[in-house]
Amino acid sequence: MQRVMSFNNFRISWHFLTFTSMVGIFAAVLISGCTQQNKTDSIVIGEVASMTGIEATYGLAAHQGIELAIQEINAAGGVRGKNLKLITLDSQGKPDESARAITRLISQDHASLIMTGVISSNALAMAPIAQKNHVPFIATIATHPKVTDLGDYIFRVCLMDSFQGEVMAKFALKNLKLKKVAILRDVKSDYSIGLAETFTSILKAGGGEIVIDQSYSAGDIDFKSQLTAVRSKKPDAIYIPGYYTDVSLIARQARELGIEAPLLGGDGWDSPKLKEIGGAALAGSYFSGFYSPEEPSPRLKDFLTHYQNRYHVNPEGLAVMGYEGVQVMVNALNQAQTIDSQGIRDALANTQKVETVTGTVSMDAKRNAMRSAVVLMIEKSGNLKYQASIAP
Question: In whole angstroms, what is the distance from residue 251 CA to residue 278 CA?
Fold first, then answer.
């Protein structure tokens, strides 16, 4: 009797264990299926942006453009039936943090594509990691030519330094009729050096003269020594291919020294804080940028309305680049033969005449966007006045 009872107890226990095991297996399969379904229901887009630090105004602007575009795409049904899932990490404006952030997005978050709202020095630290892992990488505001030289998975939607330097040199010669120009460059910035070199080459080729070439380092606060040397050469203009933080201080000190020549620059000037810091000292100066709100494009007007409704400010050029970066990316995702690294890369490389808010964008053989630049003048009020569009 005892043996039978023991056997029966064993049999009951065995059935119970078998039942619970089956339930566990079923649950595991169900969870696994749900997890797999969640993975396949979205395309993970990794973003590294300078959300804090001295470059935060650039990173935040680019991020807002990217964020708005992705929200609109998802609201319209996503891409090929899938939502875009944006994961944003802060680079703090530092190359080492940028490298750590992209490594995490690739290895932990399994991003299918990387968007970047960082300047050239940080993009140069990230691009080799994307290339090594064969993850498509789109630079939205990194303008140094070397960025896309780092591999065939690296793309750019913004203007290059070389083109911006060319734009301002031609504008100085043809539109402003200036011949004698001084340069004040940031020797620690790949961006500043690149623009200065191209500007110098094009200006000289067009019959202009660089009367003096001075340097500073980002973060300097006293530029009077360099500006005194510049003043002695009596230039028609001063080309300062730097960022708004330094440019604003340079402009104020130049005017204090009695220098009245217009200042010229690039997209690094494009920030609301330029007016806030530089004030009236920048009136009558010019810089190359990505767009002008004065352009008569219905797509641009719609974008401006949506952006202002969402963020309650006017978009900077870098916000437009972030938004257009997503437009180029979505076109590639729709055109790709397969939604994997190789398929997305190939579709990006074949980008031709994609309609964006400011016009059309095509990729050249080196994966750089072919697009026009605009030149903007800073009025006494601080508003930006459209001057010219210059095609590549």
Answer: 6
Please give the CATH superfamily to which domain 162-289 belongs: Response regulator (3.40.50.2300)
Return the pLDDT at 250: 96
CA 273 to the chain's CA centroid: 18
Instruction: Return the bridge partners of 281, or none.
Output: none
Residues 6+ apart with CB under 8 A from 199: 165, 166, 168, 169, 183, 239, 241
Rounded to 5°, the CA angle 223-229-232 comes to 135
68 phi and psi angles, rounded to 5 deg = -60, -45
Residues in contact with 307: Cβ distance below 8 Å, sequence separation at least 6, in sequence order: 64, 65, 68, 314, 315, 319, 323
Residue with tokens 């500043």: 192
Lowest-pLDDT range, 32-41, 130-139, 194-203, 300-309? 32-41
Residue 239: phi and psi, rounded to 5, are -95, 120
What gap in Å lies between CA 310 and CA 66, rounded to an integer?
Answer: 13
Q: How do 354-356 and 359-363 pair as beta strands?
A: antiparallel
From the list 183, 138, 184, 145, the residue with the least C-alpha distance to 161 is: 145
Closest to 238 (Cα-Cα) out of 281, 296, 205, 293: 281
**Residue range(s) occupied by CATH 3.40.50.2300 in the chain:** 43-159+294-371, 162-289
Q: Which CATH code for domain 43-159+294-371?
A: 3.40.50.2300
- Convert the pLDDT of each residue in 5-60 to its tens digit: 333 443 333 343 343 444 443 344 433 343 333 446 899 999 999 999 988 988 99
| Per-residue pLDDT, 251 | 97
What confidence tens digit (pLDDT) does each residue in 347-384 have? Answer: 999 999 999 999 889 999 999 999 888 999 999 988 89
Spell out where the chain has E strands.
42-49, 83-90, 113-117, 137-139, 154-156, 180-186, 209-216, 237-239, 263-265, 286-289, 354-356, 359-363, 369-370, 373-378, 384-390
Chain centroid offset of residue 296 CA: 24
